[in-house]
Design goal:
With 163 residues, the protein is of the alpha+beta class. It contains 1 helix and 11 strands. Strand 5 and strand 6 form a beta hairpin. It starts with a helix and ends with a strand.
Amino acid sequence: MAQKINLLLNKKQIILLGFLLMVTLFMGCTVSVIDSNVEIANRRWTYRNHISTPFEIKDNTKAYNIYFKLRHTADYKYANIFILAHFRDGKKMITRRYQYKLAKNDGEWLGSGSGNVFSYNLPMLTNYHFPRNGKFEIEIEQNMRDNPLLEVSDVGLLIEEAK
């Protein structure tokens, strides 16, 4: 009888432990407002090919992190990238220029690699508070000397609630 009670207690403890683990995992997840990726045709990103991402902010009291997402092949010939980001809120537009380092001085890529493709989530704004609730848009364009910029396979935007 005592063994049956111990088995029942052990099963309950295991179930409770599993439940607590699941709750902890879900609480650690961040809430994404938008997570977009746009494939660049033929891996040739031209000046005219602006990547536009509309989104809606429902709670401007929260802080958000905004990331530029980039994927390129190992044949990308630069150690950095320059982009222009146009932030639109329906009334006005603000343009910012960003430079991101993509490789170490010895040529080793800083992004996470999968075969011949390297991925980055590069910070644009951290702990940013939007001025109001509503619809916004961020448009990204490449700002390098080459037109087209070769071996860029995907470009996107990630906006998530800051922790």
